[in-house]
Amino acid sequence: MAISHPPTEPNIPDEQPPKDACGVFGVWAPGEDVAKLTYYGLYALQHRGQEAAGIAVSDFTNVIVYKDLGLVAQVFDEPTLATLTGSLAIGHTRYSTTGSCTYENAQPSFKQIQGGRGSVALGHNGNLTNTHELAREVDTAQDEMGATTDSDLITTMLAANPDLSLEEAAVGVLPRLRGAFSLVFMDEQTLYAARDRNGVRPLVLGRLERGWVVASETAALDIVGASFVREVEPGELVAIDSNGLRARTWAEPEPKGCLFEYVYLARPDTRIAGRGVHATRVELGRQLAREAPANADLVIPVPESGGPAAIGYAEQSGIPYGEGLVKNRYVGRTFIQPSDTIRQLGIRLKLNPVREVLHGKRLVVVDDTIVRGNTQRALVRMLREAGALEIHVRISAPPVKWPCFYGIDFATKAELIASAATVDEIRRHIGADSLAYVSQEGLVAATTIPAERLCSACFDS
Q1: Cut 0.90: pTM above it
Q2: Catalytic-labelled residue, pool 22, 404, 455, 458
Q3: 91, 148, 375, 393: which could form a disulfide with 38 (CB 3.0–4.6 Å)?
Q4: 22 catalytic per annotation
Q5: Which string of DSSP letters, residue by residue, matches 31-93?
Q6: DSSP string covering 348-412, please?
């Protein structure tokens, strides 16, 4: 069963940064308000996707799915959550990697198991690379609602064999999938979580007093009061039901965690592989200061993702840290078409300089990435208008040269400025006095994870 609001079309007025990987959440907790727990979990994961949100719940008899386009707080309200009663639930906050941003492609996706033996709801973080091949195998590229996602295809495959339990069906389906996937899925009785053999996208397991939680990031465990237990391992399938938790390995693990999670995607209060992301980003700033020092009066971050690295740069260099840019925290994803005048202001809709902090100063401006370069060019111009004498841009990631095929919505290769331009050409394009990126070796060292266990394809193909 599916309940929904009429879809609405979002609109963003200016160039966007890389869109985050989707967020997934699941909870098995009879006696708890699982819909609200899922809502708060998704709220903690909102940064991973702002196009659509959805929750599926089961009372051990029926699965109900509620989803729509929009932010979590726009899709759900108290009366809606009150209708979603049950003992287990999954949730999803989405941006589109495959399939357009339409209501039909919002998740969780839902299928009746063939033969009328129950149903499947699924949320997917990542991107398959063999979707077309799989679609040909199962003779379906989309369902009756017109969905076009790899996630919908996975759900279709899981529901295709009524003679198997969902767990056994998953053991047969998962090895056929190529690419990146962290999955939460459910039938009427059981919550499941699975991760691809490389563990490209994160997935963690937490414990409630009366149940279990799985989520994309540890920050989502924190917000619902779950204690961190461990990561779901690459190549692992976890099942949680009235008999407790069980796990099985469906593929030999070959860990290749995403480097970009450390730079941008994950919340700074999340932990990956036992280390806080904030600490990693501060160390990236220190490494930047060692590799690319500057004669300056003030280090400022580009809010908010540049903050920890700017702190590290200031600590290592001895240059004072300051807040020279104020972010409007309520812009986010807007559903209102901006006027031409506002659109021309561009970056000022989100950031505004503190002139008394910046005037007459030589600045080190720390940001996480440069994608097309247009935002940085507008930012540099704005800082000069605020009275900055010099602007030295420092980036806490290597140049992004290649699109990601595993679930990050970068620009195409032709749109990635670093794919064809040198660092000095980029510097001239954005109008900075100097420009430097952290080295890939420096980035890997800051994570404390061996390079062979990390995916760096967007930096080095």
Answers
A1: no
A2: 22
A3: 91
A4: yes
A5: TS-HHHHHHHHHHHTGGG--SEEEEEEE-SS-EEEEEEES-HHHH--HHHHHH---SEEEEEE
A6: GGTEEE-HHHHTT-EEEEEES--SSSHHHHHHHHHHHHTT-SEEEEEESS----S--SSS-BPPP
State phi, psi for 240 to the nearest 5 degrees.
-130, 125
CA distance 285 to 310: 6
- 160-208 pLDDT, tens per residue? 989 999 999 999 999 999 999 999 999 999 999 999 999 999 999 999 9
Q: pLDDT (tens digit, 9 = 90+) per residue, 449-458?
A: 999 999 998 8
Summarised one tens digit per residue, pLDDT across range 294-338 is 999 999 999 988 999 999 999 999 999 999 999 887 665 444 445
The share of the chain scoring above pLDDT 70, in percent, equals: 86
Domains, the chain, ordered by start = 2-255 (3.60.20.10), 271-460 (3.40.50.2020)
At 12, list the tokens: 């963003």
